[in-house]
Amino acid sequence: MKVDGACFCGQITYEAEIDTKRLLICNCTDCQTLSGSAFRTVAFTTEGGFTLLSGEPNIYVKIADSGNRRQQAFCGNCGSPLYATSDPAGPYYGVRVGTITQRDQLVPKVHIFNRSKQHWLDRIPSLPTIEAMP
């Protein structure tokens, strides 16, 4: 599926060809910390399927539990996380679904790292809802 996206401030834009069978929610503690949330939703590109259209992201290289080096790309202006890839970069990118324009069409297929999933996530459907900021 062809998608496009941008950081919050619009300084960095991209397009990507994603594999809709590889949409996931990651509950690892690294994703929790790097996203500032309880999990991160990721869409993986097809091989060579990521193109920056404007701007240049800042890169932070983290060492995964596996020992692999992973580039974490984010906007240096607004801080939006954009993608992760190997170090050196490519050929696959894990695009942060929150920055994809078509995110409402992307339904995750699996949760990973459930061992570190926040215990309260299963209770979300039972919480009261409010349509906008009260």
Q: Notable features of this structure?
A:
single chain, 134 residues, mainly beta, Metal Binding Protein, Guanine Nucleotide Exchange Factor, Chain A, eight-stranded mixed β-sheet, 1 helix
Q: What CATH first level would be assigned?
A: Mainly Beta
The appropriate CATH architecture is Beta Complex
The helicity comes to: under 10%
Please give the radius of gyration in angstroms.
15 Å
Uncertain ranges:
none
Biggest sheet descriptor = 8 strands, mixed
Beta fraction of the residues?
35-45%
State the total count of DSSP E strands: 8
Continuous helix count: 1
Tell me the span between the first and last alpha carbons. Answer: 36 Å
Number of domains: 1
Shape: globular
H/E series, N to C? EEHEEEEEE
Which fold name corresponds to the CATH topology?
Metal Binding Protein, Guanine Nucleotide Exchange Factor, Chain A
Estimated structural class = mainly beta
Explain what you see:
This protein is mostly beta strands. It has a single domain, classed as Metal Binding Protein, Guanine Nucleotide Exchange Factor, Chain A. It has 1 helix and 8 strands, in the order E-E-H-E-E-E-E-E-E. Strands 1, 2, 3, 4, 5, 6, 7 and 8 form an 8-stranded mixed sheet that branches. Strand 4 (58-63) and strand 5 form a beta hairpin. The longest helix is centred in the first third of the chain and has 7 residues, at 29-35. It is globular, with a radius of gyration of 15 Å.
